[in-house]
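Continuing the series of single-chain predictions for the mutant panel. This is the parent chain; the variants come on the following pages.
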Amino acid sequence: MAIGMGKEIGRVNETRPRARRCDAGVYEMTKEEAINKVLKLAESEIGYHEKASNARLDDKFANAGSGNYTKYARDLDGMTDFYNGAKNGYAWCDVFVDWLFYHTFGASIAMKMLCQP
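Parent structure:
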């Protein structure tokens, strides 16, 4: 089963014991490995508070508020061609999923999985 669509997408092999590099430069992983990798990263972010402003974004608790500023949007805003504009300050629940996929699968695969142009 492929993760996402297209030739450059990594494939999920449900029986392969270890990740290995495939021809597109993407590491193959089992479906279970892919799920566990996303969940492990998400779990490491438990407790992160959205920020009142664009300050101290890397601290889980500092500058807490309802301004919708996060390190997730900041990181993706810094990527060329990932979004069509800055997302910091907007509702961040979707941006968090985008950030998880970016850090788990890389920009190209994440964009395809997230139906980004």
